[in-house]
Amino acid sequence: MYQCQLCAQTIAARTPMVKLTVERRVYQHPQRDRAHPVIDRSRPTGRRQRKRRDDPGGTGLQIVRTLHVCPAYASGHTPTI
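Structure (tokenized):
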């Protein structure tokens, strides 16, 4: 059982809850040096050397606020960016 945050009704047990994204923002991820460990497979035999690769960073979306709603309200809502 849960309470829908849009219609304020208590929803019956075993009814799926939907997380509805209400607000997002653009976020600039910084560059990170030596962030991802990888194994160098170019060496044919012996011990393989571990190396670390850079993460270039970039732009993406972060979720700021979500609501827990019932399926009836979730189906009528159109997602916005």
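The helical segments are 71-76. DSSP finds one helix and six strands in the chain.
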